[in-house]
Amino acid sequence: MKAQPDLTQVEKDKLEIDPDFDFREIARRPFEAITPNELAMFKWSGVYHQLQPSFFMIRVVTPGGRMTTRQFNRAVDLAEKYAQNELCITTRQTLQFHWIRKEDIYKIIEGMAEVGITTKNGCGDVPRNIIGDSLAGAGPVQVGDSLKLIRMMADDDEIQNQRNLPRKHKISVASSNDAFAQTLMNCQGWVPVERDGVVGWKFHAGGGLGARPYLAKVVFDWVPEELVLDVTRAAVEAFRRHGNRRQRAHARLKVVVDTMGARKFGELLIDIMKEKGIEGLDRIEFAQSDVPTIGRMYLNGQEVVPQRQPGRSIVRIMIPRSELKTADSRTIANLADELGGGVIMFTNRQNIELHDVPEGNVEAMLGALHQAGFRTDGHEHLPDIVACVGTTMCKMAVSDSPDAYRRLYDALAHDEVYWKSVGTLRINITGCPNNCGQAWVSDIGLRGTRTRNPEGGSTEGYSIFVGGKLSEAGKIAEYLCDVPNDEVVPAVKKVLDTYLAHRESQAERFVDFCERIGVAKFQQLVSK
Amino acid sequence: MEQLLKEAEALIDAGQCNEAVELLCRQGPPEDTRICELIALAHHRKDLARGDVFSAVVFASRALAQGSANPLMKEIIETARRHDQTLAGPLDPQDYAMGGWYEQRPAAASPYSSCALSKLKGKADAPKDFDWLDRNIPCQKACPASTDIPGYLQAIYEGRHADAYLINLRDNIFPAVLGRVCARPCESECRHGWDGLGDPVAICFSKRSAADFKPQDSVVLDKWFPSSGKRVAVVGSGVAGLAAARQLALLGHAVTVYEKHGSPGGMMNQGIPVFRLPRDIIAREIGQVAALGVEIVCNTAIGRDLPLTRLLAENDAVVMAAGTLRPNLLDLPGHELEGIRHGLDFLLEVNETGSTEVGERVVVIGGGFTAMDCARTARRLGATTVQIEEERADKVAAGSILRIPKGNVGVWYRRSVDEMLVTPGELEELEHEHIPLETMVTPKAYVGENGRVKAIRFIRTELGEPDASGRRRPVEIKGSEFELPVDTVLLATGQFPDTAWIDEAIRAELAGEDGWLKSGSAYATAREKLFAAGDFATGASSLIQAIGHAKQCVREVDRFLTGEVRLKDYARIEDVTESGRIREMDQVPLQPMPTIGLERRDLPTEVELGFPEETSVDEAQRCYQCHYKYEIDSDKCIYCDWCIKAKPRPECILKVKTLRHDAEGRIVGWEIAERADDVNMIWINQEDCIRCGACVAACPVDAISIQKVSLVTEPVA
């Protein structure tokens, strides 16, 4: 008989291995007795085998990126004891522990569970940590209560118990029509719309980075708030049914939506909701056009943002390379308690915001932060660089992105005159094509690579991409050039100087400059 | 604690750095300064990639922060730091030539010696190109006629049986015949049959199915060249003679084939039993040769009816393809007794007359193709002495072997089963037809009575050292002699070329006293215009060997006739975007050949039924399609290792430091890189590649191309 496609090994594992491991039992089990298939399924509990064979990484789930200081302090305590004194902030607004021994995995999981933080669905083919914008609930431009929706989705069993999706599933909910919630690079992107005093939600679907990036399309122009959860569930279900389980590289919802088109995908969602007997579906409006119209970033370098709640402010702290050493974490937590509202927000640029700081405490807060060595300026500008862990701890990486981060930061982030002259600019560094570092959607994206040396061996380096953005219809950054790792600094400097020399005016942002001259011309300019 | 540190240090010294770290972490999360120092040291020593450098720095920093005075800790941190350089040149995009699966390559020379072939696309003919074909398409390399096996299996899989037949017809001239009786040197080389990869593809049976399911009209190939005006005579109409004639005709020469028997076909007709090869099959494929204008003159023995010298005088060239008709008769005491005959002579008689007298007990001596045919033929002869139960009688054919007592025909062979040169599956059929096989016995003498053989004396043997053929030599065991009663002895002990028919005037010039051609297996002989093809030159082999030899011989003849090389071999390189295979095809089991039951097995009825059409497609899908070449463009590759993580075989994708080449540019070896910085290429070792495509699916930057590389023989424009 002609051979029929069988389940891939990953798909078999998902059916055969219970993802809810008893990590106390795993702690007792000899490492050799854990199969590679089981090891891969640890991810469903947020546990990843690190590059270094004796250690694991654990990622927690913090919907919307919010933590109380009590929760954060617990993470800091655990990191001090089990994770070499360090926590990392991820681009999906949560925390990672590294250097965890197999014997200590359950201690982290249980310790965080005691303060109400789970690691379930931290990784794996599941709905991942739901993100939003860091200003959610507090920002002056808020249109819809995104935190409410995020909590609703994060608490919904029907969504969260989808443990066997074709691939990971990412949801973003924005508090206003603004690129800050990264709507266009998520599988589902919700953006609030106000009509005559009523808030409804615009639904985008099919965004995603990885090696083959797609930007989301608009599926519905209007979903009444009370139907948002149903549509979210239906989209997860549609993904479960239609994702390509045979080729992991083409499994994500982005491929489903791209293949089907936004209209057909919308019809599919309606059909799924009809199957479930959901009523009022005629109130959902299909998109007039599938091309998104996301607003530009409200955030643009502010150190302090006045909250919509009178008398309170958000104080923004830059965390170098997303790494939080225990001492620094404690300083931040103490300040959040003493001078702020006891709330910590992780941002998708791997920084921290302290919310609910009484207006009267802002100066003291800034002073204390600066005194402790923290920086509060440079956000959304050259110093605000994002980098993944790269080859330091990740098995997939090609290049040492933290190293590139440090060298770029050291060389360019302290020259205030220079970075201010450059203006709004996001540099993102990712160690491999998976693009955890989101290089595809930044002004300047560096992606790890190696280049063959004619005389032998190969050299670690970066491919440089330019002109990516998540506002308006979005844009995937375009390939400019390759550069060996030790020339990253002068190369980025040359790219920036080229922009400075050729921009129309100071008002022309880097991303607009890229769009105006086109990448071919840009290549010409730097190839001299 | 002291003990732990000591053990860890010893592990580090022994290069077992991961094990050392594991040990150091056993008692708790690493925090003790001395433990951190040793973890730093372990990673520092390992130093294969940036991850090791980083780990060393993390733990060295912690050790220092906790007051370590170990100078190495500072050094680790210091040496880990990278320093900015000035720009060495302009910022340029990567430049690459091969690209990935969706890219089109130019028909240009390959830019690097590491490239698998000398050209990126088109026709290539450098030594490395043919070397690639030889190593990568093992079935085609094993086929003496260089049949494009993956090409025709792909056609069958796609339901294009007629195309599959055409490919075979072009390459091996007698597809339907070989699809039944080929010696199948290809199957033992098939990549699917390599260690751990399952069973080889049923290549031969698939060939037959191509013939079975194509339209049953005559297929005549287009000639390569118009008429040359040259005349060539071919002596002998066996496969070698006819193959030579077909190729000569395609080249535009006028060919006459002379056959001493009443019908053409040689061993096909006279040696191979009808129950393995129906005669209409032979006739049809010989007809396709004749349809090209080849004249076949039967009942004309060169030497007896027409001297070779006259042929030479009247033709521009003569090809001798007279086969091996001189039997190797064992020179044993009693060899003159009646009832002892050579197997070929026996088969000829049965094939021409449909019967012969063999008596009750038949002993076949030998362990090759002829022995098998003799035994199975003899098994079908004889009286219907076995009574069949009444209710079954009407279902059992009159000549069925079920009506003949079993055990009366046996095969006796001096070595072990492993040394036998038989068609795969034949031993199983022997057993199925109740023909006992006795190995490790060698005949010593015939015992006669009234001038007729009545017994044969054997001695048992054991295997000694390998002989010239590479097979282990049988050594007699003293005192193990025994006698076996017998009515007929069939000697399947080989045969040699017979040169006695060559005119005496030139015989000495051409042949030695041993009767073999002096020119050996060469195509040209000592005499101008006179060539030799097939078994007549090489000695007894197989049909496919004879065809292969004849094809090559014709290329020499053509060069002699025209004074130029008019046919050329190339590696044809084509871009493709996918192979059409899915991995599950590798798990499809080998399809068995359906055969008729014993109740219908008689002399004229073909035993093998051939695959049903659907089965032929199922079987053909098993072929890995080794003509596909998966190759990484090292300039486009970003060295992410994702293909290595996805690879199915330990050796199919390698991180290489260097490739080794010979003087001709062929890739002959490699050196593996241990350190990340030493990896010069991530390289697909195509010899070990099973063409699964997992690497293409895994590659995030589409740096892996798929190309189809085929051996083509074309007229030179």
Q: Provide a count of the helices of chain B.
A: 25
Whole-number mean pLDDT of chain A: 97
CATH superfamily membership of the largest domain in chain A, which one?
Sulfite Reductase Hemoprotein, domain 1
Number of domains of chain A: 4
Q: Which CATH first-tier class of the largest domain in chain A would you pick?
A: Alpha Beta
List keywords for this structure.
heterodimer; A: 528 residues; alpha+beta; Sulfite Reductase Hemoprotein, domain 1; Alpha-Beta Plaits; 4 domains; 5-stranded antiparallel beta sheet; B: alpha/beta; Serine Threonine Protein Phosphatase 5, Tetratricopeptide repeat; Fumarate Reductase Iron-sulfur Protein, Chain B, domain 2; FAD/NAD(P)-binding domain; 25 helices
What features would you describe in this structure?
The complex is a heterodimer of chains A (528) and B (717). Chain A is 32% helix and 20% strand. Chain A is of the alpha+beta class. In chain A, the strands form four sheets. In chain A, strands 1-2-5-4-13 form a five-stranded antiparallel β-sheet. In chain A, strands 3-14-15-12-11 form a five-stranded antiparallel β-sheet. In chain A, strands 6-7-8-9-10 form a five-stranded mixed β-sheet. Chain B is of the alpha/beta class and 717 residues long. Chain B contains 25 helices and 23 strands. A five-stranded parallel β-sheet of chain B has the order 4-3-2-5-17, sandwiched between helices. Chain B has a five-stranded parallel β-sheet with strand order 7-15-8-9-10. The chains are: A alpha+beta (528), B alpha/beta (717).
Describe this structure in a few short sentences:
The complex is a heterodimer of chains A (528) and B (717). Chain A has 528 residues and is α+β, with helices and mostly antiparallel strands.
Furnish the topology, listing elements before pairings.
The complex is a heterodimer of chains A (528) and B (717).
Chain A: H1 9-16, H2 23-28, H3 36-41, E1 47-49, E2 56-59, E3 66-68, H4 69-82, E4 86-89, E5 95-100, H5 105-114, H6 146-154, H7 157-160, E6 171-173, E7 188-195, E8 198-205, E9 217-224, H8 228-242, H9 253-260, H10 262-275, E10 285-286, E11 304-306, E12 312-317, E13 323-325, H11 326-338, E14 343-346, E15 352-358, H12 362-371, E16 386-387, H13 401-412, H14 416-422, E17 427-430, E18 444-452, E19 458-466, E20 478-484, H15 488-502, H16 510-526
Parallel strand pairs in A: 6-7, 16-17, 17-18
Antiparallel strand pairs in A: 1-2, 2-5, 3-14, 4-5, 4-13, 7-8, 8-9, 9-10, 11-12, 12-15, 14-15, 18-19, 19-20
Helix pairs in contact in A: 4-5, 4-11, 8-10, 9-10, 13-15, 15-16
Chain B: H1 2-13, H2 17-24, H3 33-46, H4 50-65, H5 71-80, E1 122-124, H6 127-136, H7 138-142, H8 149-157, H9 161-172, H10 175-181, H11 203-213, E2 231-235, H12 239-250, E3 254-258, H13 267-270, H14 279-290, E4 295-297, H15 308-314, E5 317-320, E6 326-327, E7 340-342, H16 343-353, E8 362-365, H17 369-379, H18 390-393, E9 409-413, H19 426-432, E10 437-439, E11 441-449, E12 452-466, E13 472-476, E14 482-485, E15 488-491, E16 495-496, H20 504-510, E17 530-532, H21 535-538, H22 543-562, E18 567-576, H23 613-620, E19 628-632, H24 642-646, E20 653-661, E21 667-672, E22 681-684, H25 694-698, E23 704-715
Parallel strand pairs in B: 2-3, 2-5, 3-4, 5-17, 7-15, 8-9, 8-15, 9-10
Antiparallel strand pairs in B: 1-18, 6-16, 11-12, 12-13, 12-14, 18-23, 19-23, 20-21, 20-22
Helix pairs in contact in B: 1-2, 1-3, 2-3, 3-4, 4-5, 8-9, 8-11, 8-23, 9-11, 10-11, 11-23, 12-22, 16-17
